[in-house]
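User: Here's a protein and a ligand (2-(butylsulfanyl)adenosine). What would the complex look like?
Assistant: Let me lay out the input and then the predicted complex.
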Amino acid sequence: MDDDALRQEYDALCKEIHFHNYRYHVLDAPLISDAEYDQLMLRLRSLEAQHPEWVTPDSPTQRAGAVAVERFNKVRHPGPVLSLANAFDAADVRAWLERIARLDERVRQCSFVVEPKIDGLTVVLHYHNGQFVQGATRGDGEVGEDITANLRTVRALPLRIPVQADDPQPPRTLVVRGEVFIYSRDFERLNQRLQEAGERTYLNPRNTAAGSLRQLDASITAQRPLTLLTYAVVAVEGGEVPQTQWGLLRYLRALGFPVTDLAAYCADLETAIAACQKLNEQRESLPYEVDGAVIKLDDLQLAAELGFVGKDPRGAMAFKFPAREVTTVLREIGVNVGRTGVLTPYAVLEPVEVGGVVVRQATLHNFDFIAEKDIRVGDRVLLKRAGDVIPYVIGPVLDARTGAEQPFAPPQVCPACGQAVEHLEGEVAWYCVNAACPAQVLRNLEHFVSRGAMDIVGLGEKIVAQLVESGLVGDIADLYTLRKEDLLRLDGFAEKKADNLLSAIEASRERPLERLLYGLGIRGVGEVMAADLARQYGSLDALAATSEADLQQVQGVGPNTAKAIVDWFARAANRNLLEKLRTVGVWPVAQQKPQQGPQPLTGLTFVVTGTLAGFSREQVKDYIQQHGGKVTDSVSKKTDYLVAGEAAGSKLEKARSLGVRVIDEATLRKLAEGK
Ligand code: IVH
């Protein structure tokens, strides 16, 4: 091939790769596989190796960010890169409109565009003759820093516009404003990778995006999952751009720029306010962090005429959502003892408002977390509260360290009972294994009387604490020997309250085995598993006599829980407790006792997959169990039969590959009836 033909191939290949980049990173709708894309890049690299003189900065190979600089040059923006004034509620927004209507009545007839306010970093992107030639940070709004090499690595940023040949030609000079940020999903993946590599994780997507953009070595930026959305034009020469915000967003999209698809055109202010509120409601499910909505006058000419106050344009407003992340000082680290003896550290904080509530305490997850994040007492920490999630500490703000912060050492003994704590191989948690530990007794009782367990009405946390502190109750069995005269000696107890409590305790004797089993608080045994265990074993005696291997045949019981159950029944203190329960007459057996009749499925293990005509999933499980069989969740060599219904999937394949017998519903019935 002669050089002309090669050159043609090269140019076409550059365009093709730009286009596929755009499909993947801007539209999120790739047309070719990663492998095909890699092939194209490989060919491009080989052509560039033959002809290095052809390589221009906008070649797709130049996104790798090979250039490192010593410092960033300053860039004067062609027009002011403005900020936004804030509104915190609908009244603020209405007041804004009133203010600008006093300057120009026409705004009352205006329509608006509402966009998500992306929690990222503003960037200013210069295109000359369709080529990306320079990119800068916002800086002080007049002068920013030249981060062109870093921005080239952002794959959603078009290096050439228009991306598709049949789209409009852009003006000779076009300066576009946008926001660089990281998708929440990519941020989580990045942190997961770092954690697996034993490296320090990042605090939040915004800080990570900021840090990545300010890397002097662009090859580091290239490794971060930065992306971009554009929303404004800062300057234009040698051409025209639409004069409405809605038209502008469409125009930018047509040129190949990434533009949010969450923008809303609103005919009047009230519709715009409603659109902001809708975005706030959607906030949790959005793919990136938004810290508000931006309301913009659609008429950009009018917006420009209104001018600005300080650095805030009059023609737009940020409707801020409540902050979900704030910083505050970590005063102390406390340690809670849970009902299973797990020690959980928590942060005692300088009170701070976040997400609309004042937070004084937050979870620190576990001791490994404190060590990994190097959280110290006295640190300024970043705190998050999102949706219904319990507030948690994300990590320390290292730049705020004074040197006076104190590293934290996990306790060697239980803070409630003073006995040595233990750590299980392969688990992060530390445990207090003293069954008589007062903190555990208290938590256990609270759990035992709770609604999903024995549901003892009127026995709240306060009374439980009173019963334990007075020495009347040392374990759950003691509840059933309480006498009225004992209760009457407690603060706040008169005849009626004592009678009510005693009859509530009496009523709880009728609870089925599964409730008692759940109420015992065995590690890993939740309500659903307790029901499965009760159905499978029928009594506490049978469960106490079982083995780890046998337990693992029960749906959902993995090796750790099987061990926890066997260990629980092996412990002397627990055996004494069970004897006490038996003595006081709290000893239910399963309501659905294993059937007395013939049990032809005894010793056989079944897995069920697909949809059966005559049984629901629960019914078929019961049916097999009532005929003596066991049902497990996944197919293994131990499975005797796979019962396959309609649309059976991977389990069927696995059964076939392991040589497990596959039967249908009718065959199951025959087996169960001994035919
Ligand atoms: S418009 C005149 N639109 O919010 C144009 N800003 O607090 C003024 N931001 O500095 C900005 N998403 O970094 C605009 N859709 C959006 C935005 C947005 C995020 C940022 C931008 C700005 C800051 C103001």
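Summary: Residues 82-84, 115, 117-118, 122, 179, 231-232, 294, 313, 316, 318 surround 2-(butylsulfanyl)adenosine (CB under 6 Å).
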